[in-house]
Amino acid sequence: MSGPVRTPRQVADRYVDAVCDLDPIVATSLGTRPGDDRLPDPSPAGLEADAELTRRTLAELDAVLTAEPALGDDPVERRCARLLRERLGAELAADEAGEGFRALSNLFSPVHSIRQVFLLMPTATDDDWAVVARRLARVPEAYRGYVQTLTEGARRGLFVAPRQVSTVVGQLGEWLSGPFFAGLAAAGPDALRGELDAAARAADAAVAEVRDFLRDTYAPQAEGTPDAVGRDRYAVAARRWNGSDLGAGQGLEEACAWGWAEHRRILAEQQAEARALRPGSTPKEAMAWLGEHGPAVEGVEEVRRRLQAMMDEAIEALDGTHFDLAAPVRRVEAVIAPPGSAAAPYYTRPSHDFSRPGRTWLPTLGRTRFPLWDLVSIWYHEGVPGHHLQLAQWVHVAGDLSTYQASLGSVSANVEGWALYAERLMDELGYLTEPGARMGYLDAQQLRAIRVVIDIGMHLRLPVPDDAEGVLAAHRGRPWTPELARAFAGEHLGSEPAFLDSELVRYLGLPGQAISYKLGERAWLAGRAAAQRARGADFDLRAWHMAALSQGSLGLDDLEAELAQL
Question: One Pfam family of this protein, by short name (predicted)?
Fold first, then answer.
């Protein structure tokens, strides 16, 4: 952005441009620089460049608001300024805690984003593939920089727990079994065959080097690092995911107690649903029966088509009744995730010109049979009306907000809270008619409630509640451990063991992320209820949905209040 910067939105968008200079993966995600063949610098020098940009942007925001204090009266500028200040403040707090020097987990770490970007790049023409080839050639340098950062973290005594290391080592082994980059290059044109294959071989060799470093050098050094990060680190991490200082006062304890109450409430609903499905059965028994005898799809491509049809049908049913969808927002694709992904389904946003649509991704974990009871609700979450309607709408209205509010400024509690609200909305509207689909919805709700309890409980070593039953009964009052958390989840959730194992590693490696779903949903529901009370008979749910989805990103500190005013 050239010219003088006079508003918070201009500060925010100049920040996006500067981030794209430092991290070309962001530019690819946005779709703003299709010819950019660079990769970010994940070395210590790259981390410092990121931190310096953050400090400089905060100073620029202060200068703009000091020069024009009346900007705070504009609701769009006010929301943008608050979001930018909170998000960058959270990033600086994480930087000061040295979190970048131990950024390793089974999701979201540099080792994953460097691979993921190749799944977002255009490949329609030979010129597109030439960009892919040039970026592939940069993978070894990027991974070497990442290893330098972990090495520096080790020198400072900043480690992740061995559980994270061994999980990522296993993931990298799966990537190499393909190998991933060779398979990617094989789809390219013959005219670039030599360049693509050479770059892919070097990229796969770099993956092997990272795996060997983690296994042979880093893992022995990290031995003894506890899974639990403790209150101080948890508070910093939770702020990044939730947009609120939950570590202040008893905020985390309150959230954990509320999560436990939600677990008990949902369990009662599950028990009633189980009796309706299979008289005399427990929820676990009913879910096991649905997995074996309920509706299922055979075949990977067949389930992809089924998920695509589900989203297409939801768009047709909801557009004009509960939402007003612009033409670009109506396009979304179901995709199968590559091997070596984490176990949970996920969503990737459309590019900012919609040339790359929003996509839902299903990890198959080697399966070829897919029971539907637990897929219906999650695809309302990942696709329509969940992540896709919100994040694609943000792209659609980015010109009215700022690119920052529609992209980099995302707060997990807002985004995941909306997606969980979307699952509940489809239940409220009566769409869970597939046999077992409502049990799947309740299982998903139970998962998110249990996440709040065990994520906070494990990392803060809080006591198991005094009214705990089942596998927890003998451990009342004792601190939560990963082993207790896994046993508790296995007792109440219908997911496969491999999924629950992956989820546990995720919670331990991304403290504070797992709680954002239910805490965000709580804010969305409270905001809707407040708006309904304020407007009474004039409340229009469709209009409220569109106004809410057009605000851009907000953190938990602002979400409920802003929703209440719509």
Answer: DUF885
What is the sign of the dihedral through the CA atoms of 307, 315, 402 and 355? positive
Looking at the structure, tell me whether residues 172 and 282 fall in a common domain.
no
Q: What is the DSSP letter of 513?
A: T
Task: Quote the pTM value.
Answer: 0.95
Candidates 510, 276, 273, 279; CA nearest to 377 is 273
Final residue belonging to a domain, choices 196, 227, 258:
227
Sequence-ordered strand ranges (E) for 277-431: 296-298, 332-336, 346-348, 358-362, 369-371
**Per-residue pLDDT tens for 152-202?**
999 999 999 999 999 999 999 999 999 999 999 999 999 999 999 999 999
Contact predicate 541/509, CB 8 Å: no
Tokens in use for 220?
A: 């022995």
- Domain end (from 486, 509, 532): 509
For residue 518, is it within any domain?
no
Whole-number pLDDT of residue 342? 75
Rounded to an integer, what distance in angstroms lies between the CA atom of residue 542 and that of residue 28?
Answer: 33
Bond preceding residue 40 cis, omega within 30 of 0: no
Looking at the fold, whether 149 and 258 belong to one and the same domain comes out as no
Token pair belonging to 158? 């900043």
What's the pLDDT at 232? 96
User: What is the distance between the alpha carbons of residues 418 and 390, in angstroms, rounded to a whole number?
Assistant: 8
Q: CB–CB of 363/344 below 8 Å?
A: yes
In a domain, 505, yes or no: yes
In terms of domains, do 306 and 454 share one? yes
Type of residue at 415: V
> Starting from the edge strand earliest in sequence, which strands make up the sheet with 358-362, in order?
332-336, 358-362, 346-348
Residue 533 has pLDDT above 90, yes or no: yes
Residues 498 and 414 in one domain: yes
Q: Which domain holds residue 505?
A: 241-509
> pLDDT by residue (tens digit) across 404-448?
999 999 999 999 999 999 999 999 999 999 889 999 999 999 999
